[in-house]
């Protein structure tokens, strides 16, 4: 087996993870799960429970999550607006269309791609079927060069083939466009501190990058990385409580439930900003 990012190696096998084991490429430093889960296994992971943990299935977390997402998306759009102001933007992995809504408020015309039946149907209801593709970026029907900006937040770590996904993005992007990526960073402080127990190591996260391996991936797909930073995310206690309920932790699950129970709801849903081991990157076409 060769590294699916750089095509070379050697590979070092690490901890068991989901359907296989975490592998680290000693050449480009990319990490990935091999063998990958089957389609049926992924479908199980991304079932209704998965979206429940993200508050997308409705319920009382919904408003807290929406406030938090809106604040986080504001940061991403600030970054994007350094490179492009307005035009067509494609959100890959658009879920129910929160980011699309935020982008429209900033003057972009928003489009989306979403693989989940449930979420894509919700986004289609908001934006119309012609603007939201139910599927993956490789098979989306938009014309070549249609987009000024493509956003990939929490996306690249989930796809089966990052090279194919980013190459498809290159085709859809104008030659003077920009891609904004947010993905876990294996060189981040939390990754270094937590080691093999890093919270981003999940069975559905098939790939893990750092600045070096993401730059290499970008180069192979016709891009140059022009910006890297630690990604800030808005958080609130209501969201943390939901996350720790979905991904139990012996100490933090009861602690977050206790704290959320003690605070008035206004404080529970008030946002604060954290870096959680992720990075933002901006790529621009090199050819
Ligand atoms: Zn490699």
Task: Explain how this protein is built.
The chain is of the alpha/beta class and 287 residues long. The chain has a domain at 55-236 and 271-285: 3-Layer(aba) Sandwich (Rossmann fold), CATH 3.40.50.150. It is 37% helix and 28% strand. The chain contains eleven helices and eleven strands. It has helices at residues 39-45, 48-53, 61-81, 98-105, 117-127, 162-172, 189-194, 211-220, 237-246, 252-262, 265-268, and strands spanning 11-17, 20-25, 31-34, 87-92, 108-114, 132-134, 147-153, 173-184, 207-208, 223-235, 272-285. The strands form two sheets. It has a seven-stranded mixed sheet with strand order 6-5-4-7-8-11-10. A four-stranded antiparallel sheet has the order 1-2-3-9, with no helix packed on it. The longest helix has 21 residues, at 61-81. The mean pLDDT is 90. It binds zinc ion. Residues 3, 5-6, 8, 25, 27-28, 30 line the site of zinc ion. Zinc ion is lined by residues 3, 5-6, 8, 25, 27-28, 30.
């Amino acid at each position: 087996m060769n590294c699916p990012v750089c095509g070379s190696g050697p590979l070092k096998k690490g901890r068991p993870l989901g359907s296989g084991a975490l592998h680290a490429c000693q050449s480009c430093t990319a990490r990935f799960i091999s063998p990958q889960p089957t389609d049926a296994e992924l479908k199980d992971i991304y079932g209704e429970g998965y979206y429940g943990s993200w508050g997308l299935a409705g319920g009382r977390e919904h408003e807290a999550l929406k406030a938090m997402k809106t604040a986080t998306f504001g940061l991403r759009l600030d970054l994007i607006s350094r490179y492009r102001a307005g035009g067509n933007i494609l959100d890959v992995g658009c879920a129910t269309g929160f980011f699309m809504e935020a982008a429209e408020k900033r003057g972009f015309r928003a489009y989306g791609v979403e693989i989940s039946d449930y979420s894509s149907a919700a986004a289609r209801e908001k934006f119309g079927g012609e603007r939201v593709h139910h599927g993956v970026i490789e098979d989306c029907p938009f014309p070549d060069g249609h987009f000024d900006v493509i956003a990939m937040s929490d996306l690249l770590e989930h796809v089966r083939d990052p090279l194919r996904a980013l190459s498809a993005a290159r085709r859809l992007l104008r030659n003077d466009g920009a891609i904004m990526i947010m993905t876990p960073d294996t060189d981040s402080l939390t990754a270094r501190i937590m080691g093999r127990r890093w919270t981003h190591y999940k069975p559905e996260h098939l790939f893990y990058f750092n600045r070096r391996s993401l730059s290499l991936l970008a180069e192979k797909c016709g891009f140059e990385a022009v910006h890297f930073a630690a990604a800030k995310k808005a958080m609130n206690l209501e969201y943390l409580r939901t996350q720790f309920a979905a991904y139990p932790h012996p100490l933090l699950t009861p602690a977050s439930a206790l704290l959320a129970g003690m605070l008035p709801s206004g404080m529970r849903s008030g946002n604060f900003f954290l870096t959680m081991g992720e990075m933002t990157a901006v790529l621009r076409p090199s050819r």
